Amino acid sequence: MSDIITKEQIRQPENLVYSKTKLLTDKALSYCPGCGHGTAHRIVMEVIEELSAQSETIGIAPVGCSVLAYEFMNIDMQQAAHGRAPALATAVKRLMPEKYVFTYQGDGDLAAIGTAETIHACNRGENITIIFINNGIYGMTGGQMAPTTLPNMKASTCPYGRDVATMGNPLKITELIAQLPGVHYVTRQAVHTPGNVRKTKKAVRKAFDLQKENKGLTFVEIVSNCNSGWKMTPVQSNKWMEENMFPFYPLGDIKVDGQLIK
Amino acid sequence: MTEEIIIAGFGGQGVLSMGKILAYSGIMQNQEVSWMPSYGPEMRGGTANVAVVISDERISSPVINSYDTAIILNQQSLDKFESTVKPGGLLIYDPNGITHHPTRKDINIYTIEASEEAGKLGLMKTFNMIVLGGFLKLKPLIQPEFIHKGLEKSLPARHHKLIPENEKAIEIGKGLIKAVQVL
Amino acid sequence: MKELRLMKGNEAVAEAAIRAGCDGYFGYPITPQSEIMEYLMAQQPEKTTGMVVLQAESEVAAINMVYGGASCGKRVMTSSSSPGISLKQEGISYIAGAELPCVIVNVVRGGPGLGTIQPSQSDYFQSVKGGGHGDYRLIVLAPASVQEMADFAGLGFDLAFKYRNPVLILSDGVIGQMMEKVELDEFKPRFTKEEIAKNTPWATFGKTDDRERNIITSLDLDSAKQEKHVTHLSEKYKLMEENEVRFEEFQTEDAEYLIVAYGSSARISQKAVDIARAKGIKVGLLRPITLFPFPKKPLAELAKQVKGILSVEMSLGQMVEDVKLAVECKVKVEHFGRYGGIIPTPDEVVAALEQKIIGG
Ligand SMILES: Cc1ncc(C[n+]2csc(CCOP(=O)(O)OP(=O)(O)O)c2C)c(N)n1
Ligand code: SF4
User: Fold this and answer.
1) pTM of the prediction?
2) Chains touching C (3+ CB pairs < 8 Å)
3) Which atom of ligand 2 lies at the shortest distance from residue A133's CA?
4) Which class would CATH give A31-260?
5) pLDDT over 90 (residue C31)
């Protein structure tokens, strides 16, 4: 007997080890191959499926590469103007407090043009979850400098590297909003390895659970790659992220149960 | 003389830069030119194309929908642009990766095995210049000295040492162009 | 001889701004105009002319930086595309109210909302009829070539300072993204302190004993004063209408029909004129270069000569209203346009002329 299993055997239901959540549509993702956005989408949708909350969840898509998130997430969604997702989410949650409400935003959207909306939604302690994808660049528009671009990192609007003296320092918006009393849970995760994916999923689940308990704003940052904007292969970009992004944006919990982690 | 050209292929094949070198060379030869690309992130990994017009007169519309010449480097672009060549016009394509070949009988069709040749010679970086050579063989609109100047102007100074290599690729391209008979 | 280059419209306006003695650029990325800031950042004019280039956190911030810089008598500018220009409207209204000179570039894309990143001309109303709140006008320049993108940077600053008024360069994705031959002007020095004190004595550059303090504001709580201020603005706008109308005519001498089109639509329409003439249709083209002030008089003159006018725009029909006003309904005026990022072809323009004007 051969120990090589055939294609047909692999396809037997008992051999199924993974299937795509029904909360992701069949539409092909528009993200560049290797980009972290797709994995982050999957995690959020899997959590909502686990909570059996498809009918109970409203998502807000940003402007950025994930502007088309509503094409992929099989839930009711709204698409906000650039930076304004937390304002939309505020109203949705206030008008339908029984629903899960989340925003999904990039760093330009959340930490540049939308800084005011972000900080004030956090400060009001809105019972929403913010999923924040930090890739240190403007992916959608072709690789311009983002508020989170690292010092000396090159982007199309800082072709000689980010000069902090004239372009400002990278904004650690996550640490910043963690200071606000309205914010209950803040964590920073990644999705480039299976281990990180598991941790991120736990964090997203926790954020949604806390939202149900009306604990205040929950905030999950995902440090992610933008292989196109960084002009690297996906593999290079993940390595570069570990070596450069993680030291500046260390992974782990930042605020738990309303208490800052020292 | 007015020559309206579409150059189309995958992003990364050097489509836009081929158009730029052609347009810059036109300026060096004291002609009017326009270069109108498809643009935006939706082109990521997809097709890229650019319409180049070279003329003795002021150019009216830079946006055109029928062309004297189509230079085609992938199947999607062939499907999209074959029908846009003016009757009696010219279609040049690289047959590499093409499964549905052009069928029109009212235009002149040529192939250029540029990617195969570039691969053989290890000249992938100047693949687009091989293609340009093929075009210039059939339509010598621009004199070699102005192509040289066009290369000087379009390439950043640090790449000027690569100009002879580019010119060599153009010469190679001139030898690779083959007429196709549509039966 | 002037320097000849092959440039994108976006690059040309950026390079020309440096050469026009611009002191500061403030922007936020958006397609299809991000090359303007990218080009400026790569050129590093702070090392040559001393021009400041800053990526702001939003369009709202960028236009308010322009307000601040213009208040100091400096040549400052910003650029964006439609959604970003909408965000700037509040700031533009304040700048117009405070009578500040500046240049704003809009490389229009299709709307409404996030719309499409492809070219459009659907921001005409917003540009010439206000956009922000209150009674104000912008001088609106509509480039139809990369050369004009370059030329209008300098012209824009000149007009802005002449009238103490914001100037809008209303471009679109075609003009911004395409490359053409450009002749660049010589470098013009930035204003010196002395020039600022002399030419813009109203600016905030530090009160000295020999003058009253300068205040830049758009506020007047006394309605009588505010009415006087707005009357003053209206007189300025009248002067612009008298002195600054710019347009170009193409094959109008013997024209029996007329196309009116600006920007990239004018380029397409010019080709349409050639095609129609080859068919024996005597048609000409009037291209407004200033959209405010609008070339009303030349249009009214041509209306006496032609049997019908086709207004061609990449929109649902906005400029067509001004064309109708200019000719006072004395001749038939119709609109033809594609929108949502679709560019009309010259053949479509000819077909529209035949159906809507000649046949209709
Ligand atoms: C008002 C406005 N300004 C600018 C833009 C152009 N724009 C689209 S996405 C984007 C940046 C997105 O970057 P980020 O939020 O980091 O998300 P990513 O694309 O990297 O996922 C910008 C500036 C816009 N759509 N609207
Ligand atoms: S541009 Fe960057 S963020 Fe956008 S899809 Fe591609 S890799 Fe992802």
Assistant:
1) 0.94
2) A, B
3) 3
4) alpha beta
5) yes
